[in-house]
Amino acid sequence: MAHGISDPECKKEYFDTQKELDTHLDQLAQWIKESEHFIVFTGAGISTSTGIPDFRSAMDTVLSTGPGEWELQDNKKFRSSSANVIDDMQKAIPSPSHMALVELQRRGILKCVISQNCDGLHLRSGMNATHLAELHGNMNLETCKKCKARYLRDFDTDMDHPNHYTGRRCDKPECHGQLRDSLIHFGEDLPENELKKAFDHAEKADVCLVLAKRKQKLIIGNLQRTPLHARATLNIHAFSDVIMNGLMKRLDISIPPWILRRRVRITRQNDSELQKSNILIEGRDPDSALIPFSLFQSIKIHIGKKTKQTLTEEPFTFEISDKNIQPISIQLHFFGHYNEIPFDLNYINVKTIPEEEYFYLFYNPLKGIWRKTIDETDLPI
Hints:
The protein contains 7 helices and 20 strands. With 381 residues, it is of the alpha/beta class. Strands 4, 5, 6, 7, 11, 12, 13, 16, 19 and 20 form a 10-stranded mixed sheet that branches. It has a 6-stranded parallel sheet with strand order 3-2-1-8-9-10, sandwiched between helices. It is elongated and about 75 Å long. The mean pLDDT is 93.
């Protein structure tokens, strides 16, 4: 069983004065500008502003989420009803810190994020998986034990089984292996590929910002003093969002708003002998078309003015006669973590559905609108 911090001195939370904070952020910004390989290490602290509690914050913490999970267990207490905690991590909106890291990565300034978090917010924020090492797994990711294929889901894959099996199988005809969640439990080895990526980038790093080391410059941003406090080149005692907002201002880079990114693949296979077509609708990873992504709770098919059928499980596929000349509407219904409205794909008739089509759907939760585009940068900001 995991526990909170035992040393009372290490539970104390510290805050830099405004003068100290300005000096520290000025120095950090300068180091980043001069760096050749800047990396960031994140822990639970980057997600507390989204409503996800951490693990080790003390009973008297200033965090709006309240004490850490393990601290509550150690003290045999329950979380206060007044705590600002989200009821479902799938509904958490990436923080300004998450989005700042995404923008730094897009500009090539940030080479890699190494994270202990499994809440999926780094990927959800738009961080490219190539530049992300998730050491403790991702609650939205499951992998095939047999062929190692990756599957992203818009739901929690953790079935709380000791063997990690989710009950789903690989959809490759030649494999059909059992799928497992990617979460790392206590006592289990860290994922080999993610660990190697983390070590490779750590060896190259000349500046490392820890939001929750490196032999050149180690900057720790944390309210509590960590075991590496004395060894750090710089310690910044402030909230993660305060650090990243101040840093981005000094780098003269705006933090982009968060946009929900989806990618859809539609195929039409024609059977000329039977004069019918089979239509398949799939979700795909926005950054890698090869990775399936379970995005839809259901799909409604309308032919003319009538509802032909409602599809409720993968694979989302239906048949239609090639002789049918009526308009077709494919209505995509999402899981609704962010109150996404359905999206309609309208076609004049079956023959106007492309044999294969990839496109992005971007959703702005503040405006409640979708944008369909083939340009991955065409965000509805």
